[in-house]
Write a structure and sequence with these properties.
4 copies of one chain form a homotetramer. Chain A is of the alpha/beta class. The first copy, chain A, has 11 helices and 13 strands. In chain A, helix 7 packs parallel to helix 9 and helix 7 crosses helix 10. Chains A, B, C, D: It is found in: Cytoplasm.
């Protein structure tokens, strides 16, 4: 019997990507589609790339509209998920694509989001140690941020193997869809095409504490992250360049071995052959993560680079992957590692 | 039992797209992958977006390598297919993604390609009148050019209904992948980004006689096509703006009605609701065709616009669609109308 | 003594481009900068590419702010210029970058803009027959639309020489800056990158009557224009593909000769050598117009293609060129034909 | 009397940019234009954005062709400049846009370039301490690499003020023109559009020792640089994100003060107001450098970001700036800080 899934926030980029993936998921039946200002509109006018759903009309995001589903995906602005989630029964699998339930430390939440902490849900990055066990059978899942997904997967092998000092430096480039459909002047096509620019510099980006939380857990000690996000002239994709000083005795061989071991059994994380580097185009529309790592013997740093599609593995694909685990399905059901390139 | 498919020219864009689609095709098993200068290389180095085939090594394109398959897809430079095809048995389904067997008139071939005509195979644009019948059970298929696909589907409804005068004017924009992986200065990223430019102006583009052939057949009389292709700063997609003078008595309503009728039962051709216009982003990576049409009462012209993905519906998706028909499978098997957007 | 120029609407793309050009103009001193919602802001925050003006603060657009200048450039939304202009003295040169005073026929204005017609000013496309004489000493100038600039210059030589039938077909691609800084969903970078789409199809785009007006004047008889604009994934540039049926007896040679004659003495209009085609990248940031023309002997059409920078020759550069003529300066003062490429 | 300037390598991107700037230089007369495989071609076919030089024909790069000029700009592939330079008289100002004469340490050259070291010329980054004095009256100038220009200007203020530990981490994104016009598959438009990818990871990029040389000189002690370049989907621009651990006692205020002091009198280096961040679009085609800096109190790092146009300030503009100093002209002659945006 099909799993019935509702999507709240179906007009946005995260919601649209969730629908794209769910349409290809063999166990899923798509139920209610809801929106806020877009309620009453045809989905075909909002998401013209999804013809099978073109004639569906968005409902208001209410507890009534979302009732009667096995799974509810919340693709809402940050801070809105808690109020909706508490109206949904404990037997419904609620998957939050927003930030509300990612952080464990209420002080971190309050510092970065400026509102009371709503709680902490099992974290939907199955590749992290212990994550799959926490997701199995869970009825609540917090989907990671797109940057923390790329960065945690790039650096976790180094920290898990004790190869890196506990101060990481990350510079990541993101496509503009990571900023959503909000109408802001700096997101206009005329502004972003042909331009690279940073934002949230100096540790103020909200994804910083999430990276710190993940990498500290893997390292078993506090890790700091100097994180600089940049906006790149492309619609999709994150390229994260992550480095940390190598601990004494580290060699190119020990680094390679640690990454090979960490990625060996992961269905979506691909350590590339030596000499080949990640490119966001190669994971366009796919749930795959491309990773490569180098050891710089002069600067004595481990440099790991990862490429993901921010909307797929970084958002909706990660959500479906975790949903599969929670529901007891094969983790890869309905998800592909094949990108659309060139 | 799976259909075993070989791909000759697996290192190029058309070959890569064919593999992307075949990997998702439930009835297909991918057999030999061959190349020319790329023989001996790992596919993962050439097509990094296809991880399930990353460790496959390309063979030389020979009759031996291509033997023993149910289907052979030829994604070779123009003029190279005939020599390969004649070495393949009559019981093998040979699908040519090149131009060699598209034109019926040897004089057209010689004028536009400057070499002897190799012959004519059943034409793989199932939406044209009579095309499906010719493809059923066929062992040879000529896949249409990308521009002729977009243009023929946009204008055929008008000519089929007798609404348009027999002089069509077409201006089409194509993504750069339509020009293939050839190393030419004008295809460098530095040259194409931020720039639009025409080429092959004045009726000299090789896809012109193919459009003329298709539209004349539909109209039942000779149709001329003034065709101007332009190169657009994007990797994929064709937007074809096609117009013709309306015959006396034509109205907006009669135009709309003709298009609704023509598109009604087509699984891949979507006439958009009035007021919504095609966008190549909406068909990115999909086999869908978006069409819209307007009647200009002042200029007295019918203006039809179509959007396709040049590599999918315009090349490899069209090939798979025709392959399905030839093999007696459901025409839509393994093909999606869902685009990857934004 | 310097010419003192005020710019109303200095926060938008047209206003910013005007400032970029005026900063390089040896006879100009930049006076008041005004805005509407942006009044009170530093120009450096709105136009970060203009460091010499970074610390200037925008004033409200009022008659007082604009008083005391030799020239006032109005870069306002359509329909707003008349109210401002009538408060400026007859001795002030007022140059309207908006549409308000372009059309001669009030019925055309009312049909396409839906408001009362404000009047007609000398038309700032000096390359059209008679235009320079009307601009010399004029105190009011209507700057042409960006599309009409590209299209009129491409087709005027054919109509002036009596080579073309009076039904033109135009398909033009424009960069997104042509749509201005308005916050509309379809102008977001995520939507426009990687996509081509048409709009205003079927003769409804507001620039249509302006093209008709220009080409009919050149031809000496009514000319219809089937105009389809498309949005291209680039910030700047217009590529206009324009064609018309050739009159009997026209040859490739007669077409070439007509274009050579028409472009021979124009400082900004460059007919390219045969075999070379326009590219918008080549005129990026420049006031040049690249033109090429072909005669298609099968479709019997003249196909002319032009490339301009929509913000420079298509808007602010055209304004400065006409300002120079009106002020009795050399027409090319402060303007360059050199593009920024690649 | 005009300064007569020859450009060797006029067909490439660096040579073309040099010509663009020299055409606008009031003291310069452009002399011989030479090329290698492009000798004999019209410049208009190779650099269509430079109409004033369109009919010039490239000569072979020989001592004869380059004789009789006051200045010779060498825009040649790395390793080719020495042989040409030694044939030019000591009274000619020779400016090398290649790498040949940048490094002081022959061992660095041999390690990174694999050939014998040709020597060291005065270094054309006037903003570095002592650089202007070395350039005044010099007859030989080594123009810095594009990445070292962006990185050295971003970090020099921190090292000059003794604020930063001596291990820098740099991730920089470059437009594709930085890779030149070489016909390589990964530089095709189809490959670069929509994609970000790194290269030369782990300290192997040839610009690394140049950054080390510059920053160590400023710091007065050896500085290591972990440098990761990435290729961005745009034609022009470098965005360099540079960080280093702060020395004890450093505060946001002391960092700001150091950068304000360092940038105060520089005509081309603009420290942006607090809260505003660099964007490559803002310096498109200009010789300006946008810089912003933040202090991250949690990661305890100074993060400085710079944006330049890699072809202008990063190559040809830097060359003209240094030429002006060497010739005793005002340093800013013929150079603009105004970008072409949006």
């Amino acid at each position: 019997m099909a799993v019935r899934v509702a999507v709240a926030g179906a007009s946005g980029y995260a919601g649209g990507e969730a629908l794209r993936l769910l349409l290809a998921h063999p166990e899923v039946e798509i139920g209610a589609l809801t929106g806020n200002s877009s309620a009453g509109q045809r989905l075909g006018a909002l998401q013209p790339h999804l013809p099978p759903l073109a004639d569906r009309v968005l409902e208001e995001t209410t507890a009534e509209a979302l009732a009667g589903h096995d799974v509810v995906l919340l693709a809402l602005p940050h801070g809105r998920s808690a109020a909706v989630a508490e109206q949904l029964g404990d037997d419904v699998l609620v998957i939050d694509l927003g930030a509300d339930f990612r952080l464990k430390n209420p002080a971190d939440w309050e510092k970065y989001y400026g509102s009371p902490h709503a709680g902490t849900w099992p974290y939907g990055l199955p590749e992290l140690p212990g994550a799959r066990a926490a997701l199995e059978g869970s009825k609540r899942i917090a989907v990671p941020g797109c940057y923390p997904t790329a960065v945690s997967l790039a650096l976790a092998p180094a920290y898990a193997a004790g190869l890196a000092e506990n101060e990481a430096v990350v510079v990541a480039a993101s496509g503009t869809s990571g900023a959503g459909k909000a109408l802001k002047p700096h997101l206009l096509g005329s502004e972003v095409m042909g331009s690279m620019s940073p934002y949230g510099v100096g540790g103020v980006h909200r994804h910083t504490p999430e990276m710190v939380q993940n990498l500290s857990a893997v390292a078993g000690e506090p890790v700091t992250v100097s994180f600089t996000p940049t906006l790149a002239p492309m619609s999709r994709g994150i390229l994260a360049t992550c480095s940390a000083k190598a601990r004494p005795g580290v060699t190119a061989e020990s680094v390679r071995a640690a990454y090979e071991k960490a990625c060996a059994d992961e269905p979506f994380v691909h350590l590339l052959p030596e000499g080949q580097w990640p490119a966001t185009a190669a994971v366009y529309g796919s749930n795959a993560v491309q990773i490569q790592v180098a050891y710089d013997p002069v600067a004595h740093r481990i440099v790991a680079v990862s490429a993901i599609d921010n909307l797929t593995k970084g958002t909706a694909g990660g959500a479906v992957q975790s949903m599969n685990i929670a529901l007891g399905l094969d983790e890869t059901t309905g998800l592909s590692t094949i990108g659309v390139a060139p």
